[in-house]
Design goal:
about 170 residues; mainly alpha
């Protein structure tokens, strides 16, 4: 019957997501080779390992590869909730390449999604992205306002790493 096949699919999906999360922790810990292996395992189990893999490329000193990867996946993604996960990486990568207007466009899209769909997490992501863009553009006052909003939202979400980044 369908039971075992459905069960196997659920196990594969869970494994794929677990490998992706492992890759994220490893990447943020600076263990880049191990992160690469975890993202590859996630992909083998059927998960698109983005934005983590693009951010890994950036951490590896390969910003052009990072930009190509994040642009590709964004071009293929129409679901707003998935775009909301990808856009902060687009901002970070664009800023690393000095592509201020690309970063500003991605941050504005994220902010529009936040306004449309609400939620503290989405608002925190948007404020963080906007703060980074304003800072890169030399717009100190706007950066400070956005960073304060981001810090408050991350604190409310009990996300100390993100709160520290926003600070």
């Amino acid at each position: 019957g369908a039971g075992p096949a459905v069960g196997r699919a659920a196990v594969r999906a869970a494994a794929a997501q677990a490998f992706y999360r492992q890759g994220e922790v490893l990447r943020l810990s600076g263990r880049l080779d191990e992160a690469e292996e975890a993202y590859a395992a996630s992909s083998r189990y059927g998960w698109e390992p983005q934005p983590g893999l693009a951010l890994l490329r950036l951490a590896q000193g390969r910003p052009d590869a990072a930009a190509a990867a994040i642009r590709r996946v964004l071009a293929e993604t129409t679901i707003w909730s998935r775009r909301a996960v990808l856009l902060p990486a687009r901002v970070e990568i664009a800023l690393a390449l000095g592509e201020l207007e690309e970063a500003r466009g991605a941050a504005r899209e994220l902010d529009a999604l936040s306004a449309q769909y609400g939620g503290t997490m989405l608002r925190a992501l948007a404020a963080t992205a906007l703060a980074a863009v304003h800072l890169a553009a030399g717009e100190q006052e706007e950066a400070l306002v956005a960073a304060r909003r981001a810090t408050e939202d991350w604190r409310a979400l009990e996300a100390p790493y993100e709160e520290a980044c926003a600070r």
